[in-house]
Amino acid sequence: MSKKTDGLSLPYKIRWRLTWLLLHIAGPATLPDHLDPRRRMERERAARVARFQAAHHA
Hints:
It contains 2 helices and no strands. The protein has helices spanning 10-26, 37-56. It is flat, with a radius of gyration of 13 Å.
Protein backbone atom coordinates (compact mmCIF):
# COMPACT_ATOMS: atom_id res chain seq x y z
CA MET A 1 0.00 0.00 0.00
CA SER A 2 1.39 3.39 -0.94
CA LYS A 3 1.40 6.46 1.26
CA LYS A 4 1.21 10.18 0.51
CA THR A 5 4.78 10.54 1.82
CA ASP A 6 6.50 7.76 -0.15
CA GLY A 7 9.87 8.93 -1.46
CA LEU A 8 10.06 12.06 0.69
CA SER A 9 13.02 12.46 3.02
CA LEU A 10 12.57 13.69 6.57
CA PRO A 11 14.41 17.00 5.88
CA TYR A 12 12.18 17.57 2.83
CA LYS A 13 9.02 16.89 4.83
CA ILE A 14 10.11 19.25 7.63
CA ARG A 15 11.10 22.05 5.24
CA TRP A 16 7.91 21.55 3.21
CA ARG A 17 5.68 21.76 6.30
CA LEU A 18 7.44 24.86 7.66
CA THR A 19 7.22 26.64 4.30
CA TRP A 20 3.56 25.68 3.91
CA LEU A 21 2.76 26.97 7.41
CA LEU A 22 4.62 30.23 6.82
CA LEU A 23 2.72 30.76 3.58
CA HIS A 24 -0.51 30.00 5.42
CA ILE A 25 0.24 32.58 8.11
CA ALA A 26 2.09 35.31 6.20
CA GLY A 27 1.43 34.43 2.58
CA PRO A 28 -0.82 36.14 0.08
CA ALA A 29 -4.56 36.45 0.48
CA THR A 30 -6.80 33.80 -1.04
CA LEU A 31 -5.90 33.28 -4.68
CA PRO A 32 -7.25 31.04 -7.42
CA ASP A 33 -5.74 27.52 -7.19
CA HIS A 34 -3.48 28.02 -10.20
CA LEU A 35 -1.86 31.10 -8.54
CA ASP A 36 -1.86 30.00 -4.90
CA PRO A 37 1.72 29.11 -3.76
CA ARG A 38 0.43 26.60 -1.17
CA ARG A 39 -1.60 24.75 -3.82
CA ARG A 40 1.45 24.78 -6.11
CA MET A 41 3.52 23.21 -3.31
CA GLU A 42 0.86 20.54 -2.80
CA ARG A 43 0.79 19.73 -6.54
CA GLU A 44 4.60 19.53 -6.70
CA ARG A 45 4.70 17.26 -3.63
CA ALA A 46 2.00 14.98 -5.09
CA ALA A 47 3.93 14.80 -8.38
CA ARG A 48 7.13 13.91 -6.51
CA VAL A 49 5.37 11.08 -4.66
CA ALA A 50 3.76 9.86 -7.91
CA ARG A 51 7.17 9.76 -9.63
CA PHE A 52 8.62 7.75 -6.75
CA GLN A 53 5.70 5.32 -6.74
CA ALA A 54 5.84 4.87 -10.53
CA ALA A 55 9.56 4.14 -10.38
CA HIS A 56 9.21 1.62 -7.57
CA HIS A 57 6.02 -0.14 -8.63
CA ALA A 58 6.77 -0.55 -12.31
